[in-house]
Amino acid sequence: MEENCCRTTSRDEAERRRLINRLSRIEGQIRGLKGMLEKDVYCADILNQSAAVSAALNAFNRELLSSHIHSCVVRDIRSGDDSAADELMVVIGKLLK
Amino acid sequence: MEENCCRTTSRDEAERRRLINRLSRIEGQIRGLKGMLEKDVYCADILNQSAAVSAALNAFNRELLSSHIHSCVVRDIRSGDDSAADELMVVIGKLLK
Amino acid sequence: MEENCCRTTSRDEAERRRLINRLSRIEGQIRGLKGMLEKDVYCADILNQSAAVSAALNAFNRELLSSHIHSCVVRDIRSGDDSAADELMVVIGKLLK
Amino acid sequence: MEENCCRTTSRDEAERRRLINRLSRIEGQIRGLKGMLEKDVYCADILNQSAAVSAALNAFNRELLSSHIHSCVVRDIRSGDDSAADELMVVIGKLLK
After folding, report:
1. What confidence tens digit (pLDDT) does each residue in A64-93 have?
2. Per-residue CA distances from C51 to B32, B47, D18 (Å)
3. pLDDT at residue C1, rounded to an integer
4. Does A55 touch chain D (CB under 8 A)?
5. ipTM score of complex
6. What is the rounded CA–CA span in Å between residue D62 and residue D58?
7. D67 interface with A at CB cutoff 8 Å
8. Which of A30, B18, B76, C2 could, after both became Cys, cross-link B81 (CB 3.0–4.6 A)?
């Protein structure tokens, strides 16, 4: 089993908490969007709000990617594992669509 | 108060249900991401999953935007309200970042 | 043949000039990127520059889309042509990937 | 002066040629867009074409980023240069907007 390098120091634990908090806020925003649809709020207002949720999710993706690069990717490349660079590009390719 | 044109026919009610169902699935995916972080799953696997959530949210945005254009925007422009085109560009500008 | 509504007033002619000028600048930036690759400039510097070119092209797309919505789409919807909304969503779908 | 790691082998020279060819095609597409605006082609057709140019530029960015990661970033991290990961995130942050 691949051990997760992202949780080996207390700094990383704080980072993990921050990421989970970001997701909790996004989960709340998604519920807010559902409430807007249920209450039949004007579509353009819902769209403005859902654009904000997309931006929040992109910010989460960037923070997680940064954490991944600074911990796992650096560690794997140092240990001579060349597949880390390939795997990183697969992930980035999905984020860049 | 702006009345919401997106809910005046049974077809629009079905559309609204579809949009809410999309959001419920996305909410579940966000909770899944939180679980992955809690269980300390390998970051690259979380990133692949969160890229899929971003894609699902983009699909929701496109469907809501299409619904908005076909109902509110068409109605407003027909009724001579020129501000509908300006408002639409504000929303699209946010979605295109 | 579809007549182009985007060029019926002097304001639209100014808009068309602005759009062509944007493209001329982007064309110059692309040539600049080729020069950087030929002169073997450090990749990260080329990437920063090509991210700027992508942003410039997105700004062009947004301006052309705004012009299209304010002229052609408004005109077609007013004249009762419902296909304008469908066609608009096809274009937006491509820009939102 | 930073030496460019992206041009140290014949494989990298082939890669550089491919990247320059991509840019030449994009430059031709930009000129094509200008021609469409000059000839007053229907805006929606220009938008479909400019969405294709954005996609081609994104493909160029992904290929250059992959080349950068597999050569410069791997080399710098192996040589103990921690700033490579920071610099990479700056570049990715710009590409992800």
Report:
1. 999 999 999 999 999 998 899 999 999 999
2. 32, 22, 19
3. 42
4. no
5. 0.88
6. 6
7. no
8. B76
